Amino acid sequence: MSDFHQNGIITDFHNLTRRPLAALEEELVAFSARRPMSLILPSLYAELEGPALAHIVEELRRVPYLAEVVIGLDRADRDQFLQAREFFARLPQHHRILWNDGPRLRALDAELEAQGLAPQQPGKGRNVWYCAGYVQAAGRGRVVALHDCDILTYDRGLLARLFYPVAHPHFNYEFCKGYYPRIAEGRLNGRVSRLMVTPLLRALKQMHGPLPYLEYLDSYRYALSGEFSMRSEVLDGIRIPADWGLEVGVLSEVHRNYSTKRLCQVDLADAYDHKHQPVSAEDASGGLNRMSLDIAKALYRKLATQGVTFSAEGFRTLKATYYRLALDLIEAYDHDAVMNGLGLDRHAEEQAVELFAANLLEAGSAFLDNPGERPFIPSWNRVRAAIPDLPERMVQAVERDNAAVEPSVTKV
């Protein structure tokens, strides 16, 4: 039996990794009769050619409780979409691919744009948002999970542990966030979480006091993990960013809509590794550089909805406070790595902190300079209010895309 404790903010499940996978899957099969389960996989076409996704699909083939798998496919022309259909055809579960660059879904996106409801930029958030709308409209799943497609150490036990708290018929959790240690190949990873998000939240608490929202975010052991599950109705009312702020945005929305007694986090794996993003210090449009900017902006926007007032002077103070806290944490991480026989490059860690500190100011300037920005994608509740039949037409478009014959289109 797994043990857990209540930390005062959210329920924290530990040691599910100790339970035999066969026992977990047997229970989930029973749970699925009452709460059918859907899995969303947001993917770039390039990930089909990478080392992780083929293994993920092989693992998913052996999952006995899934009602459907929904793949959001970005940056794919017609030939690549057809290759993706063949790639995922081995899945025995009901599965559909959302060809986001195809003419049918592009036409629906243009219709949403005309109403001011379309995502304003490409990215993981946009991909997930369309998949969420499809899952809701198709109505096959009552519990929905999402995980990334670049997990090199994936095994299907991760998915079972992610689904379990939300799928259990006697639990009342609406949302579950996955946790795993960021250690791989003898190194301490997870730089954005360790070196930016943790000290940034602590700096904000130091400046603005122990706000419930900040205490809530700081209670997640890995707030930036790309793995979470939820009841399907949660998807209706959340407004998420289209960019790298997706994870912070989702956590913020479930905090706004639900009691913390209905939220939890769970250990997913003892080891986890995925494609590592470069720092991209010279390129603000990519890597950890872009990620840190998007996360900071998402956090500022959400804090503004909590009544926090920002100013240029305040952002300069935040940068200084963050920088000191982050450097103190590097010292602790270095000692932790030495004690556990792990590698950690202190010079690279401090360079990352310097970049993140600069980006806190950059994100603050963007926040102050563009107060009319519409940063969040509208909820699907609003879409249905404006265009009632669009979700159903999206299901029809996806069905036609996944049929045997496809229209020819120009390459994207």
Report what the structure shows.
It comes from Halomonas ventosae. This is Glucosyl-3-phosphoglycerate synthase. By secondary structure, this protein is an alpha/beta fold. It has one domain (11-401): Alpha-Beta Complex (Spore Coat Polysaccharide Biosynthesis Protein SpsA, Chain A). 49% of the residues lie in helices and 12% in strands. The protein has helices at 21-32, 53-60, 78-88, 103-114, 124-138, 156-167, 191-208, 212-218, 234-237, 246-257, 287-305, 312-339, 346-369, 380-386, 390-401; strands at 4-6, 11-13, 37-44, 66-74, 94-99, 143-146, 175-179, 183-184, 187-188, 228-231, 263-267. The radius of gyration is 21 Å and the shape is globular.
Summary of the model, kept short:
With 412 residues, this protein is α/β, with parallel strands linked by helices. It has a single domain, classed as Spore Coat Polysaccharide Biosynthesis Protein SpsA, Chain A, CATH 3.90.550.10.
